[in-house]
Amino acid sequence: MSILSNSVYNNMAINEIIERFLQRRLSRTIYIKYNYVIMSKNNPSEYFSITNYPEEWAKIYTSNDYQYIDPVIITALKEILPFSWDDNIKDNLNLNSFNIFSLSKNYEIEHGYTFVIHDHKNNLVSLSMSVNKNNVGIFEDYIKTNKEKIQMLLTTLHHKITCLYIENNNNQTIKHRLI
Fold first, then answer.
1. What is the pLDDT of residues 41-57, one digit of tens each?
2. Full-model pTM
3. Is the distance from CB of 37 to CB of 48 less than 8 angstroms?
């Protein structure tokens, strides 16, 4: 598990609560790799992620600021509905984007689906899920059967993290006033 933050979402205790919440609610049928992202649309370098993608891949991704050229992120910025990482994503974007898929394939991150929210703070919020090539059929059935539930999971997850950070900030403000 990796929690990567270059944003205001840097409270480890809150992030671990969110991570456990997410883990408990995803499929037990197949092993799903996931990446929950909050990214400022005004400043994409403000990037927060809770992921169970391989740690090496997560570090490569963030250290190279791949959110600027990732076809999944670029597509999510234009969408409000969940979408599959099909060939259309790859066909509609520039050649730099293909490099990410060829690299992520080394970590068995190639077949996926992304759920999207555009929040009131002008953030892109997404939950991307992927499986290895041996489980694509089962994964597609899982998505088809649970699409609405997963979108609601993302909405609930984002509401939960937003509330926890507001509560945390209010407590910090109260503590500073008492000093």
1. 999 999 999 999 999 99
2. 0.88
3. yes
What's the token pair of residue 174? 């109260």
**Spatial distance between the Cα atoms of 13 and 17, rounded to a whole number of angstroms:** 6
8 A C-beta contact, residue 54 and residue 4? no
* Cβ pair 110, 101 in contact under 8 A: yes
- Phi/psi region, residue 79 (left: phi>0; alpha: psi -120 to 50; beta: rest), is beta
DSSP sequence for the chain: -EEEESSS---HHHHHHHHHHHHHHS-SSS--EEEEEEEESS-TTSEEEEE-S-HHHHHHHHHTTGGGT-HHHHHHHH-SS-EE--HHHHHTS-HHHHHHHHHHGGGT--EEEEEEEE-TTSEEEEEEEEE-GGGHHHHHHHHHHHHHHHHHHHHHHHHHHHHHHHHHHHHHHHHHHH-
Q: Is the pLDDT of residue 23 over 80?
A: yes
The structure tokens listed for 122 are: 């002008």
Q: Residue 51 CB: number of other CB atoms within 10 A?
A: 23
Distance CA 107, CA 59 (A): 12
Phi, psi for residue 40 in degrees, rounded to 5: -65, 130
